[in-house]
Amino acid sequence: MSDMDAGAELRNVAIESLTRDQAAAELQALAQEIAEHDRRYHQEDAPTISDADYDALRRRNNAIEARFPDLVLADGPSAQVGAAPASGFGKIAHAVPMLSLDNAFDDEDVQDFVGRVRRFLKFDPLMGALALTAEPKIDGLSLSLRYERGKLVHAATRGDGTTGENVTANARTIKDIPEQLTGDVPDEVEVRGEVYMAHKDFQALNARMEANGGKVFANPRNAAAGSLRQLKSEITASRPLRFFAYAWGEMSALPKDTQSEMVQCFADWGFQINPLMKRCETVEELLEVYHGIEESRAQLDYDIDGVVYKVDRLDLQERLGFVSRSPRWAIAHKFPAEQAYTVLNDIEIQVGRTGALTPVAKLEPITVGGVVVSNATLHNEDYIKGIGQDGEPIRGGKDLRVGDTVKIQRAGDVIPQIVDIDLDKRPAEAQPFEFPTVCPACGSHAVREENEKTGRIDAIRRCTGGLICPAQATEKLKHFVSRNAFDIEGFGDKQVDAFYQDGLVMAPADIFTLEERDKRALTKLRNREGWGAVSAKNLFEAINARRDIDLNRFIFALGIRHVGEGNAKLLARAYGSWGAFSNAMVAAHDEAGEAWTDLNDIDGIGHIVADALVEFFAEAHNRDQLDALLEQVIPREAEKIDASGSPVAGKTVVFTGSLERMTRDEAKAMAERFGAKVSGSVSRKTDLVVAGPGAGSKLKKAQDLDVEVISEDGWFDLVGS
Prior knowledge:
Layout: H1 20-43, H2 51-67, E1 91-93, E2 103-104, H3 107-121, E3 132-138, E4 141-148, E5 151-157, E6 163-165, H4 168-171, E7 188-196, H5 199-211, H6 220-228, H7 233-237, E8 242-251, H8 259-269, E9 278-280, H9 283-295, E10 304-311, H10 314-320, E11 322-323, E12 326-327, E13 330-334, E14 338-351, E15 357-368, E16 371-377, H11 381-385, E17 405-410, E18 417-421, E19 446-447, E20 462-463, H12 470-480, H13 493-501, H14 508-520, H15 533-544, E21 548-550, H16 551-557, H17 565-575, H18 578-587, H19 594-601, H20 607-618, H21 620-630, E22 634-636, E23 652-656, H22 664-673, E24 677-678, E25 688-691, H23 697-704, E26 708-710, H24 712-719
């Protein structure tokens, strides 16, 4: 379990009731949770929550941002698409970003979407029909194909929207992707679409994998993504992948004026296009297509999870442009999640690295939408009792009991959720579930803490055992060696569990003394079951290769609560070196001191994160582990931005009020590019305030402190941009 449960108690608070501190804390928690789910979906092809749950997280994030626009995180979910490319592939930068789509969940959302488009364009009904296209939303893996003079040059996955993985060799093995385009083709063409696997091909592949003793795939989407992202193209070639073309990126010339005509061009050039795509002129026609596709969904030989609507005229698309991570001219109308009934056989309690006790439903295995599911998320003990986020009843207030017949819901994921109970089928002997008050891993007390700032009881019950709890210790070690932390190849979950159980690795520093201790040991690592001389040598080399590490990765690896990848980067950039950072965190224990103020002034770091950092460094056992670790590894200083000659290099800048020529994120990125530090509040250390219309308390404080204030135009004049 990770820090993704950090803001769980705040999910019980209605958005309109959130205080600023609560909103800031939850935005931090949501950013980390959504980023982790993006990583699991895009990098590992292994999602662990439903599309519906994921969409709910994003909707809550967007709603909080709308109420508190000044708290929007520069690297938060609304600014992110997908996940960073995996390290096993080369990288390709997208000339035109590959963005994601906003979602509609009911007919009213579609009405609202079309209304927004009309209002933005000032498109009066008297001007005629506003045509849109409607096409199935394929549940596969997005792929971009670049052609020069009709010949395939390279292929890239979406990645994080700006940079994708180079999968050219693998793409060439897919029969639906032509090596040479036919007909009249512009010199430079970037065709985008979806790689997928047909149902019958998926079933045949899984049967073959199982017969050969291999791991079977959970669903066609995972199978397609895993097959395309193989490091050996011959494996991809053996998998039955297909491709639908439906969009484009960079084009030296656009041969047509509408979306529908452009897609037909793809067919003329040799691509497969979806035959269910239709052009519509009214909302009623869009919804008719949607419900028609929804009804025929079971008969399709490929997975879809909705219908995508796009404004047909390309000149109108250009006028509409983009907002944040999505185009204004398109939206995905999602299908309701798939549901089925099964029996709840058990409720298992798992302990995460923050000590969170998380209940998981163990289900009688059942196939839902082509996927065999046997687990379901239960969130927390209130959820089991039938109590929702805001204290309101869920499932009609019905509690969950072992033996219940439950309705589960999934939408393309592996772990579904329980949405209802059939009380008529509840066994007479079924008893209310008693959530443990002691940790099942170590026997320590498990408590629901009260948030000192909000006065609310945490929704999550946590083990108080700390370092004596083996579940927390192993989970922390797994986090430490994970991909975005130390990323030690060959040191996975199984190795952590085995080495911890045998007393070989009990803390992070032990990883780096393992080789030296192995030389003195009577039983060598190479003689352990499952190991050999080569595998042991490779592991030691992988460990030694991580003895120096980027500062932000080092901070993230420590597993400090609320400090995800984004916050770790902010901290590394702000302090520059481990010495400066650690000294500041110790000094920040004094909340009246300068170090505490400086920490909270970092744009994107709030009181919740600051408290967690101070608490971590205040614990003697944490400092002892750090001392031992720093004898083995060296955190590299953060890369300094070359801003020689910049008039704002080294200065602290605050942006306030409404910015008209750039977004707040663009302003922050520009300032950092010129070597400035961006702060979220004005203090005596502030060098410059850039004030737009509507600037309030920050402007007044700057004037009171005699801090230089300039306009947005003055900022552009100053930096010469």
